[in-house]
């Protein structure tokens, strides 16, 4: 990517409101405590973090000896500091020198040559040195950020949008067991520190900083996560009267993870919340019913229309790219119609799975 274009794109991300969120220390502590043994002897890189403000830097410096880290590196983009907009600098910390358990700016901070962009040559050289990358990357650059981590084969623990699961590149990593959800915050959201000029916020904390909630934020990692090695306990047995079949794919609709039948041998469509409990030894992921990139429908709808809640018609070609359930009864919510079907409903982003441990 040309340098000018790269910097322009990052500047746009820098002013995007959801890119201006700072992760709270409590959320960092709750998640990272589960990976203690995996950090021992490692170089940790926080490459979207102002060393003076970031709670990631604060956490790792305060717990440097406790975690047994080898080195902590932190960099930030030149306009990323919410409060000071300081020029970019980097931190390289190798442990406590005077008993204060924090890096001393005059000893560990050095100015950067470039902008601090995580895609710059300067930051990529630091990335090559790192063993594990831990940060909250810009939401608007999340796809590009993740691709870079996989290209350089890095271990990571990062915060992202739950909906990123539906990205083609992202979902493939989950399917191949190269990416998984972390221990905390999935499907419940997270609270972040936001700039003073932020108008919509949840509350003001004891330090006078505005706190906003993002309901779709969670942790993603390729580190080992014990909960993904545990089987989901299944209670129900398959009854064809209780499970609808998709009209354009050979699979049944399972609206809740708790309703996955223990004895069904075929393909099932389940909500994406399943991925927070997914054990690759128990289930095989077949695809994702949100686009033809992730699954192949076996039926094509002719002249489809989307019927909105107010009864207006819109182009309905999207139904040919997602899982569809046919019904004879007119739905109360948004639905589709076509020349070769009755009423059609499109459930949101179902994960297509098969049970590897079918019980009789």
- CATH architectural grouping of the largest domain: 3-Layer(aba) Sandwich
Radius of gyration: 23 Å
Here the CATH topology of the largest domain equals Rossmann fold
Range of helix content: 10-25%
- DSSP strand tally: 21
Q: Give the biggest beta sheet.
A: 8 strands, mixed
Number of domains: 2
Q: Taking all residues together, what is the mean pLDDT?
A: 88
Q: What global shape is seen?
A: elongated
Strands of the widest sheet, in order across it, are 5-4-3-2-6-7-12-8
| Uncertain residue segments | 1-17
Using the coordinates above, name the CATH class of the largest domain: Alpha Beta
Q: Write the element-wise H/E pattern from the N-terminal end onward.
A: HEHHEHHEEHEHEHEHEEEEEEEEEEEEEE
Question: What descriptors fit this protein?
Answer:
alpha+beta, 2 domains, disordered N terminus, 4-stranded antiparallel beta sheet, 8-stranded mixed beta sheet
Describe the 3D structure.
It is a single chain. With 360 residues, the chain is an alpha+beta fold. The protein has nine helices and 21 strands. The chain has two domains: 3-228, 3-Layer(aba) Sandwich (Rossmann fold), CATH 3.40.50; 230-360, no CATH class. An eight-stranded mixed β-sheet has the order 5-4-3-2-6-7-12-8, sandwiched between helices. The chain has a four-stranded antiparallel β-sheet with strand order 1-9-11-10. A hairpin with a 5-residue loop joins strand 16 (305-307) and strand 17 (313-315). The longest helix has 13 residues, at 3-15. The radius of gyration is 23 Å and the shape is elongated. The relative contact order is 0.11.
